[in-house]
Amino acid sequence: MIDFQISDKPFNEDKIAEILTHYDDYFIPKISDRKNIVEYARKLSSNATFILAKNKRKIVGFTAFYFNPVPKTTYLTLIATDRNLQGTGIGKSMIYKLIEFCTTHNSAGILLEMRANNLKLFNFYDSLGFEVKEKFSSSLNGETRYHMYLPITK
C-alpha cells in the first residue's frame, strides 16, 4: 500500500539532495545538467512543499511545489515516480493530493513547465485537466516547452 505525506519540511537538504540524485536521470535534461543539486536541494528545503509517496518506509515517488501566497498560485516544479511503478496511479494520486492542498490554501491554480515533445507526460497532465497556457522556446536549449495550468475550482 502506498502512503502519501504532505510536508513543507520532510527532510534536511542532504536528504533532498539524495532524492534528487536518485531521480536525476528521470528528467530530460537531467536536474544536474541544469542546476547544482546541492544548491537546488537547499532552495527546495527552504521554500518548497513536498508530497512523498512511500511504500512502507521507501520513497517511491515525490512532488515538489511552491505555494505562492501572493498571488495565490502554486508552481509544480518536480514530480517523479519510480520507473517500475509508473502507470500504477501514484503520480495521479500525488496530483490529487496537490489539488487538495491548493483547495485548502485557496490557490487559484497549478502552473508547471514541461517539454512539448514529451507526449506521455503531456497526456498525463491533459487527463488531469491541465491546459496549455503558453508555448515558448527554452532559454536553456531552445527546445519548445509548454506552461500548463490547472485552475482550482471551489
TrEMBL record:
Protein name in the entry: Acetyltransferase (GNAT) domain-containing protein
UniProt xrefs under Pfam families: Acetyltransf_1
Assigned keywords, A-Z: Transferase
Xref: InterPro entries: Acyl_CoA_acyltransferase, GNAT_dom
Taxonomic superkingdom: Bacteria
Entry's Gene Ontology molecular function annotations: acyltransferase activity, transferring groups other than amino-acyl groups
Gene3D superfamilies assigned to the protein according to its UniProt record, in alphabetical order: 3.40.630.30
Species of provenance: Tangfeifania diversioriginum
Sequence ranges assigned to domain N-acetyltransferase in this UniProt record: 6-153
Signal peptide residues on this chain, from the entry's feature table: none
